[in-house]
Amino acid sequence: MALVVVMATCAYMAAGWSFTDALYMVLMTVYTVGFEEVRPITSPYLHLVTIATMAIGCTGMIVVTGTLVQALTYFQIQQLLGGDRMKSEIRHLNDHVIVCGFGRIGVMLSKDLYGGGAAFVILERSEARVAEASALGYLALQGDATDEAALVAVGVERARTLATVLPDDAANVFITLSARSLNPRLHIIARGEAPSTEQKLVHAGADKVVLPTHIGAERMAEMVLFPETTRFVRGSERMVAFEKTLRDLGLELKVVMVNPGTAVVGLTIAELEARGKGAFFVVQVEHHDGECVTRPPGTLKVKEGDGMVVVGRAGGQINAVFSAPRERARAGRAVY
């Protein structure tokens, strides 16, 4: 069409027309506006140029307009059907997982859930990230997770678990409050950035709080203080698969450090496990001097600075036992 306009304009200018009159005449013809001729069409040459411009130019504009309409209609239908299909699949979800946020942690969490075959849906405010999640084959809906209507749209009332992993602590607290009010039976896992946010999330209704910074620091401390234990627990794909199996059974494998001044210092392994009331058992002990004891006997005593690999029920019972402070000595003996 650009070539037609240029050639027709040049043809009129060859007949003595000015550039402005020639261009105006051509555009008025190809767009089928239907005004009067700019100048009288008197010669056979001008008749031929005008007829050619009408035949070729108008036909070309019809083709261009039809193509544009077809393209716009196609994308609109794709968007409509795609959105309806997504919402229909979400409506059919039951006992599923809701992931609020598709940032760095949300991407990794969704990947693991997808690999584990879990039914889940992502609720994300950014349109670009929703498109990214959809391209990966995940169910995703654009919306603000702090809005109760958005939580209802992803089936919070039918969901089994909600994980809010936004980098904003205030937003995570608000989402936890909203989700808990909408579904009292919902299992809520919340991300926290500041340690002080943990209690706020728990009070808001979170069942578990994950502090990524704290976990990262713990992993680094394990590698520095207990290299043998770290290799044992996290050094192979087999152990990763084993941890996944434990999680499926409601258990977890943890590396716990025995801090000075805690109530477990000086206890034997048997006494320590008895204190946990069956919540966990010790499978390996690495002393501060580097000595590693696998399948420790019940008579082995716990020392300050020891790293212990324990298997137990998922929850706070393990941390509660190992973090309990030792009480002050009374009447010449230590009281735990």
Written overview of the protein:
This protein has 336 residues and is α/β, with parallel strands linked by helices. The protein is 51% helix and 15% strand. The chain contains 13 helices and ten strands. The strands form two sheets. Strands 3-2-1-4-5-6 form a six-stranded parallel sheet, with helices on both faces. Strands 7-10-8-9 form a four-stranded antiparallel sheet, with helices on both faces. α1 (2-14) crosses α2 (19-30), α7 (169-182) runs parallel beside α8 and α9 (212-225) crosses α10. The longest helix has 48 residues, at 44-91. The protein is rod-shaped. The relative contact order is 0.06. The model is unreliable at 328-336 (pLDDT under 50).
Spatial ordering of strands, largest sheet:
3-2-1-4-5-6
The counted number of beta strands is 10
Element string (H = helix, E = strand): HHHEHEHEHEHEHEHHHEHEEEH
Structural class: alpha/beta
Gyration radius (Cα, Å) is: 35 Å
Distance between the termini: 90 Å
Counting H and I runs of at least 4 residues, what is the number of helices?
13
Please describe the biggest sheet, giving its number of strands, its sense, and whether it closes into a barrel. Answer: 6 strands, parallel
**Overall spatial form:** rod-shaped
What level of helicity do the residues show? 40-55%
User: On the 0-100 scale, what is the average pLDDT?
Assistant: 83
Strand content: 5-15%
**Uncertain residue ranges:** 328-336
